[in-house]
């Protein structure tokens, strides 16, 4: 119930105004977001790379309803990728892109515009010597996003996709995307989805995650295990071992600011550990999904409000 309310608020302009105006919000957002600017994003990337992490950078923004804004987002990614190349970070840091931020929801030609903007970003990544992963948004976009991914992969076979274990369809999608050279980030899924398309209970989502992970680990692709869940992380390690995978043939992924000690433990074990690092001032939707995921994050936010 609380999760559903917070996820509904994550798409409400009224809630956005209210939350953004609250005095302690900024300080708490800082826990999950590198900063507003490109420079701050590069500085934090450099620190994390120095501490043995790989990075995937997200220029925050989603649900763009303006073609000029979509093009500006693609340009921001081009600047980011040029900066990663210049600073020598591109061999450790890639980018994550939400297609809705580059035009997917535009009423006229949205898919085509998103494809063209994503292609610009892929070209800049290829020039920098790094890769791109397409984030996955709510289920109404899954077919469109995977279609655009298939198209882009003709020229950029390293393009990563995200599959969400809570969707009933995902086990079949894993089978398709477990092919050689394919980079697949498996996550549980962060949006409010109806029963008709998604498992609702945590226990069902967890079981689906393991079924999907078995397919990916047994396949010929490169699985990216995106979860903070200790049980999932343990099982992923076992599955990798059973399938004879070395630490460079799969990776763990976690969000910036979440379970840093566990990130360090995995790095110390010799695992490949990538951090999803968002930056920019369009943090509202991302931040609300983090509050929805974990009551402790919400409690922290409410405590900060109460102590002011
Ligand atoms: P949960 O089921 O949320 O938590 C399980 C357990 O993990 C908890 O009981 C606790 O033991 C531990 N845990 C979780 N959070 C914390 C914490 N803050 N501190 C301490 N312990 C904690 N979703 C999408 O829909 N699309 C995407 O493109 C996408 N990309 C992602 C990229 C990355 C790198 C990651 C890590 C997640 C991404 N997600 C994405 C979000 C994902 O779908 C989940 O909503 C989110 O990761 C929460 O699920 P979980 O697997 O971490 O476990």
From TrEMBL:
Enzyme class: oxidoreductase
Classification via SUPFAM superfamilies: FAD-linked oxidoreductase
Pathway: Amino-acid degradation; L-proline degradation into L-glutamate; L-glutamate from L-proline: step 1/2
Swiss-Prot/TrEMBL catalytic activity: L-proline + a quinone = (S)-1-pyrroline-5-carboxylate + a quinol + H(+)
Catalytic activity, EC: 1.5.5.2
InterPro entries reported for this sequence: FAD-linked_oxidoreductase-like, PRODH_bac_arc, Proline_DH_dom, Proline_oxidase
Residue ranges of domain Proline dehydrogenase in the record: 47-300
UniProt keyword annotation of Manganese present: no
Cofactor(s) needed: FAD
Keywords from the UniProt entry: FAD, Flavoprotein, Nucleotide-binding, Oxidoreductase, Proline metabolism
Pfam families in the cross-refs: Pro_dh
PANTHER family in the record: PROLINE DEHYDROGENASE 1, MITOCHONDRIAL, PROLINE OXIDASE
Protein name: proline dehydrogenase
UniProt organism field: Streptacidiphilus monticola
């Amino acid at each position: 119930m609380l999760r559903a309310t917070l996820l509904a608020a994550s798409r409400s302009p009224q809630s956005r105004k209210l939350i953004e105006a609250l005095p302690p919000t900024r300080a708490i957002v800082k826990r999950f977001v590198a900063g507003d600017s490109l420079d701050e994003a590069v500085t934090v990337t450099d620190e994390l790379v120095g501490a043995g992490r790989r990075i995937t950078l997200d220029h925050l923004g989603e649900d763009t309803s303006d073609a000029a804004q979509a093009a500006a987002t693609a340009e921001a990614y081009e600047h980011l990728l040029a900066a990663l190349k210049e600073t020598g970070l591109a061999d450790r840091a890639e980018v994550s892109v939400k297609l809705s931020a580059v035009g997917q929801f535009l009423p006229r030609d949205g898919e085509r515009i998103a494809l063209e903007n994503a292609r610009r970003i892929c070209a800049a990544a290829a020039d920098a010597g790094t890769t791109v992963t397409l984030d996955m948004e709510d289920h109404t976009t899954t077919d469109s996003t995977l279609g655009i991914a298939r198209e882009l992969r003709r020229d950029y076979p390293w393009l990563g996709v995200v599959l969400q274990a809570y969707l009933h369809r995902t086990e079949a999608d894993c089978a398709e995307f477990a092919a050689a050279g394919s980079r697949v980030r498996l996550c549980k899924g962060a949006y409010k989805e109806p029963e008709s398309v998604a498992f609702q209970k945590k226990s069902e989502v967890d079981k689906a995650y393991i079924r999907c992970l078995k397919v990916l680990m047994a396949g010929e692709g490169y699985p990216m295990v995106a979860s903070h869940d200790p049980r999932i992380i343990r099982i992923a390690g076992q599955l990798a071992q059973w399938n004879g995978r070395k630490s460079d043939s799969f990776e763990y992924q976690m969000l910036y600011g979440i379970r840093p000690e566990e990130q360090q433990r995995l790095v110390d074990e010799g695992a490949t550990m990538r951090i999803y690092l968002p930056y920019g001032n369009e943090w509202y939707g991302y931040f609300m999904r983090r509050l929805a995921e974990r009551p402790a994050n919400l409690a922290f936010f409410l405590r900060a409000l109460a102590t002011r």
